[in-house]
């Protein structure tokens, strides 16, 4: 019975947030584990290093898409539980990889990536469906805070375990991801199903009971149920993938998918995955002894995400993205210019510039990408368009993780980051030319802007 699952709204939001922490931990843990793995297995092949690091994102590309479809069939709660189980199994298997088992580890991390992609789709969706309307806008920022907190936690765990023997160190780092996964599983066992899923499956009494746990205004519950029913009717309309290219929607689809793609191709994850190796190449210091740098980057990310929560509704989306993208681009390009003008400059300057990049990324492109993706797509195509944007984002993350070590093996680090810097500036140009301002506008107003732009292009 639903009554047995009664929990406070604080408990629900905590475990929604905890899913973000778990997602962030699994994304960040390889940053510290990789140097020890390289020492243990004698890995020096750039392509293999890239595949081991990025394989989790390859799985995530498919995990997000599968989770969305399966959660519509089986429910958000059951799919989050299944995701937790995959996290546990994948983490333990990662720590048990056989000696020189690169292929085994790659395959296991693809499997683990299914859970990472699923968590990135399921947990925010579950939280937003449980939350009252006035809290939904803040959830994107809160979820981002929890993800980067999970990354910071993984960096701290990596640092604390770095004193262990090499082969035990990296295995322990990867296997430790099972601990928060077990906590998430136990917590979600007590959670009720999403009222939106219950209503879509004609379980109105159960949905009313769950909403009764979460809404202080009991009179508004019936109105909310009717609103969800009307929204569900629209979502059930059969919209093909081809509709995304219709002139009525094309402008907004390109804008939303483009922002999601640029966020990853700008190279942020090259820093998050490889900062110890970046420090090693810049200074000659062993990567395994440079594990304080990921913690510094993680602290910057968390602080930046908190700054975003304060300023999110005070500055226009395009203004913040333009500011962030410009500073990020220059932070990548300046080290290359300095390397030419002052060849004997302190090599640690590149790490200082990377820290500036992370600071501006953390309160602009990192959270705002998902705010825009949530706002910009018309209701009728929102499901498919959001899925497409998420897929492009994960593809970008996968390619950056895969190609960065290959690129730095064939050219100077400064040159590689300069390429990312140019992409950052192209992202700014894209924002100014192709992305409408969404702050303070209703979803209907944003949709009309897209239709008008589409007609203008068609007329031209």
From TrEMBL:
Principal location class: membrane
Give the Major facilitator superfamily (MFS) profile domain ranges: 12-439
Swiss-Prot/TrEMBL keywords:
Membrane, Transmembrane, Transmembrane helix, Transport
Q: Does the keyword Lipid biosynthesis apply?
A: no
What compartments host this protein? Cell membrane
Similarity annotation: Belongs to the major facilitator superfamily. Sugar transporter (TC 2.A.1.1) family.
Q: What is this protein called?
A: Sugar porter family MFS transporter
Task: Record the organism.
Answer: Oceanobacillus luteolus
């Amino acid at each position: 019975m639903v009554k047995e699952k009664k929990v406070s709204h604080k408990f629900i939001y905590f475990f929604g947030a905890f899913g973000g922490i778990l997602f962030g931990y699994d994304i960040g843990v390889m940053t510290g584990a990789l140097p020890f793995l390289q020492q243990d297995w004698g890995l020096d092949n750039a392509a293999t290093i890239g595949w081991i690091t990025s394989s989790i994102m390859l799985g995530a590309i498919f995990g997000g898409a599968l989770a969305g479809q399966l959660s519509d069939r089986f429910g958000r709660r059951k799919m989050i539980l299944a995701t937790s189980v995959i996290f546990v199994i994948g983490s333990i298997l990662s720590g048990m990889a056989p000696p020189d088992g690169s292929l085994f580890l790659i395959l296991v991390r693809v499997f683990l990536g299914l859970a990472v992609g699923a968590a990135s789709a399921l947990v925010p969706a579950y939280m937003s469906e449980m939350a009252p309307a006035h809290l939904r806008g803040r959830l994107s920022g809160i979820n981002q805070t929890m993800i980067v907190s999970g990354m910071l936690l993984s960096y701290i765990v990596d640092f604390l375990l770095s004193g262990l023997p090499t082969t035990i160190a990296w295995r322990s780092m990867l296997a430790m991801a099972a601990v928060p996964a077990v906590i998430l599983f136990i917590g979600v066992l007590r959670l009720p199903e999403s009222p939106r899923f219950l209503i879509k499956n004609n379980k109105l009494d159960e949905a009313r009971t769950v909403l009764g746990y979460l809404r202080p205004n009991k009179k508004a519950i019936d109105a909310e149920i009717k609103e969800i029913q009307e929204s569900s009717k629209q979502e059930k309309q059969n919209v093909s993938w081809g509709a995304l290219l219709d002139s009525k929607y094309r402008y907004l689809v390109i804008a939303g998918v483009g922002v999601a793609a640029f966020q990853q191709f700008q190279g942020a994850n090259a820093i998050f995955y490889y900062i110890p190796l970046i420090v090693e190449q810049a200074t000659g210091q062993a990567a395994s002894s440079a594990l304080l740098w990921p913690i510094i980057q993680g602290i910057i990310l968390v602080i930046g995400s908190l700054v975003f929560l304060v300023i999110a509704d005070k500055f226009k989306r395009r203004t913040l993205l333009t500011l962030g993208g410009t500073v990020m681009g220059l932070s990548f390009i300046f080290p290359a210019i300095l390397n030419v003008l002052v060849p004997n400059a302190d090599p640690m300057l590149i790490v200082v510039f990377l820290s500036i990049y992370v600071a501006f990324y953390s309160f602009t492109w990192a959270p705002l990408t998902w705010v825009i993706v949530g706002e910009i797509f018309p209701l009728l195509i929102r499901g498919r368009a959001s899925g497409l944007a998420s897929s492009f984002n994960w593809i970008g993350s996968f390619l950056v993780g895969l190609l960065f070590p290959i690129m730095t093996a064939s050219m100077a680090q400064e040159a590689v980051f300069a390429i990312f810097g140019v992409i950052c500036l192209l992202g700014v140009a894209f924002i100014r030319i192709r992305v409408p301002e969404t702050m303070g506008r209703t979803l209907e107003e944003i949709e009309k802007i897209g239709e008008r732009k589409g007609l203008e292009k068609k007329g031209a």
